Amino acid sequence: MISVNKDEVDALIADLRVIGAEGQAVEIKSGVGKNIRETLSAFSNSGNGILIVGLSEVDGFQPVVGFDPVKERDALVSRCDELTPPVRPVVDIHHIDDAPVLVAEISELNREDKPCYVTSQGRYNGSYIRSGDSERRLSKYEVDRLLEEEVPPKWDEQPVAEAFVDDLSEPELSGFLKVQRKQRPKTFADGEEKALRRLKILDGDHPTLASLLTMGDYPQQFFPRLTVTFGLFPGTGKGDVTTGARLLDSATFAGTIPELVEAGVAAVEKNMRTASVIGEVYRTDVPDYPLVAVREALVNALMHRDYSPSAQGGQVQINMFVDRLEITSPGGLYGGVTVENLGDAGVSSSRNQRLASFLEDLTFDGGGPVAENRGSGIATMNRALQEALMAPPEFINRITDFTVIFRKRRVAPQERHVTASDRVHDLFTQRESWSAAELVAETGLSRSAVTGAVKQLINSGTVEATEPVRSPRQRYRLSRRST
């Protein structure tokens, strides 16, 4: 249970008065009205919160005259019982400027107890989440995802009614069955046809979603949006436009999950930079991103993404920016897995159990399983990044999606065997124009080094500015005289 003392409350209110607005984890109410239930629901569903009753936001967060803390406390406790499950905050009376206020501390519910909703509004209309300094009603999709924590989903075992066994790749299916005969001989005791159903390759006469995604001839015939998209962005955000084109490179990949992984990794490899480190004897090529880590992240994204009907229109996205690589998949973390314990020994929970088991027994064309033992993917990622002297991956988890972020490898001192001017000049041959910030992000050099290099190139007539001096939109390009 969270806990705040008087000094923390005083400091919090002082900050509110300076900022003039509430925050993600703080809500101010002048009294206990009916709409306080939405706040209780939101804090219970999204990461704890502090509710302060007895201050007027319109009056600059000053105490409400005539506020009765005992009466309002009883009203708040009553409102807490109007939610399912009931909210049980820690409620105390504090004094601000010698006036009483209520301070209620609401803890986030365990994942299996969500969503917390206003009982009279119903689960699908009365579940809220905190968004900025206000509440937002959860969508039906978000509520459904929370409810899957109670009963494990089996969307991957659902039959695909339009597909038949002929839509599975014969070589892939034969190879998979060969492994199963060796590992589970009893499964084939009553013949192969029955084994196909026991293994959940078929449900009746139809392939399951899991078998189609892993062994299908062309899964996108039935699920055209279950693809992987790749985008190479010219700046640090999707809204950056530098060359007149929104994307420097883009692609949509189709095929089975093993094929999608291979295509996605190849796109990253094609578009990333590989530096050469010159040692005493050998030259070593060092990429921006370890491909082992990229592969693991992409396998995890496709294996653990949400395959419910509501999510089948969403793709796994690979987005490459000048300073990072992001891989985003539909659906947040599942089960007991959190951002905090992700990758810890013994922590593993699969949303798609059948699909995960198939991928563990399938191999890439070059050999090696598509997915290693469950729970080892993050450890493999971390190890690859550590060996490359890179920061560990970052994770963003929401109900609707999950993102892995790799920060681009910084240039090591021993790689700086060319001048800053040489490095910056090389970049101008790859793209029409660059901002100073983009040059810093791409080269890993300091801003002063980049500024000096650009100045040197301008003085030599190699590079020119696109805008007047001191323009906030300043960019640089190869001089028209030098091209």
From TrEMBL:
What Pfam families would the database entry show?
Answer: HATPase_c_4 (PF13749), SLFN_AlbA_2 (PF04326)
Which residues span the membrane? none
InterPro entries (UniProt xref): RecG_C_sf, Schlafen_AlbA_2_dom, Schlafen_AlbA_2_dom_sf, WH-like_DNA-bd_sf, WH_DNA-bd_sf
Residue intervals of the Schlafen AlbA-2 domain: 22-138
Domain of life assignment? Bacteria
Extract the SUPFAM superfamilies matched here.
Winged helix' DNA-binding domain
The name this protein carries in UniProt is: Divergent AAA domain protein
